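Box 3.1. Reading complex inputs
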Amino acid sequence: MSATEVLREGVTGARIAAELRSAILTGEYAPGARIRQEDLAARYGASRVPVREALRILEADGLVTLVANTGAWVARLSLAECEEMYRIREKLEPLLIATSIPGLGDQTIRRLEELATEMEAGTDVEAFLRLDREFHLLSYSGAETTLLGDLVHRLWNTTQHYRRAYTLLLDGGSNRIVHDEHHLLVTAIAAHDGEDAERVLIGHIRRTRLQLELHPELFDDLGTGRTPASQNRKDLL
Amino acid sequence: MSATEVLREGVTGARIAAELRSAILTGEYAPGARIRQEDLAARYGASRVPVREALRILEADGLVTLVANTGAWVARLSLAECEEMYRIREKLEPLLIATSIPGLGDQTIRRLEELATEMEAGTDVEAFLRLDREFHLLSYSGAETTLLGDLVHRLWNTTQHYRRAYTLLLDGGSNRIVHDEHHLLVTAIAAHDGEDAERVLIGHIRRTRLQLELHPELFDDLGTGRTPASQNRKDLL
DNA sequence: GGGCCGCACGTTGTATCCAATCAAGGAGGA
DNA sequence: TCCTCCTTGATTGGATACAACGTGCGGCCC
């Protein structure tokens, strides 16, 4: 995103894509919800052409599912797919954090510590999600790598909704371990110990994946749209 | 691709995307080459609208670089970006092969062995590239995973050109080790030894990456287009 | 009464036309 | 002679209008 996003569309398509992406990430549109082109066109004051460009951009981001001659839905993941995403993240994010650490300045590291503390103190779920996202993405900001960075960014976006659902589930519960891991990560980063940061991060992601597997109900169909919207693409093979 | 490809465009956009993708992968269009929308429209007998859809699909695949209000070019990688792709592959393909092995039937494994042998016997570069691609992708076909499979598929596509350039470079040279690794991989797969397959595959990809780093001239600008087309996106930050 | 066929509606896909943007070339001045 | 600005051409981006496809409802036949 970020870097490559700027130069994507003339202007309208990119604007619609950015706004719609934001709307999906904040939960305004739920997974499985039908998206009609004319609705978006009216909402953003444009014709259907740039809307379709935006939908394709978001499809590439994994936030929207398109079916030819039928329509678009907010992407949804099955439990198996979400698990898969987490396994991918377990492999890629350690690589990214290791290449990022040498590029992180003292100021950034202090900010990371602030974020970890702030997260621990807060109680609001939405605030936690926002801070958590900022924390991790900031920890990757030292990497110059465009491709890997964008890829990880996409993975975060596609799993955003399920992170929210899970966080809401254990709201007020014992998620102290999350904050401990964050502080451990900051410590490893401050020590410029890439290997240790990798270890902590693997555990962090893996633990979340195992927790998610305990809650298959998060992936049930909520009947928000008419057609399942992905959920099982295998029937097309 | 494959699975999700079918349901992408009404029909024209998908057709153009598929044909253009094929043209890029076979080397008909070189990295950095300018792509004009009207040329494609004329070539495929359609208007510019589905052409733009196709370009966006291929941009998501990493095969095309779009710049707003300016144009499209066949994507090119810098040495650093290519290295990055290979580091990503080193992490993801072992994961994929491990999940694929339990799903591979005896017939598929025999076919893998055939391919490894056929590659060893052949001398034509294009034939080698085709067989190598078929070999590896077939070795991943046991995985039901849609997301990881498609992702790896994309990684193969974006690095295809540089695999070709490198293979041409050492044409006739001592690439025996490649074939040895392929046979080792088949052996591990036949033994249903996921861990061993992971090890061999990591070495296989890593060795290629190290070789590529010795040949930065493969990434020089060949002057095929007017504007660099990516090559350094950092100036946009 | 149940299942199948067909028509009509809504939505998406494509073509054509017009506007906006960028790049290159030339004219003018320092 | 070189730099700058402007103009012109080519190419892309967006809007409107039309065609194609899929879906759902109603009627008809079994």
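In summary: Chain B touches chain A through 38 residues (CB under 8 Å).
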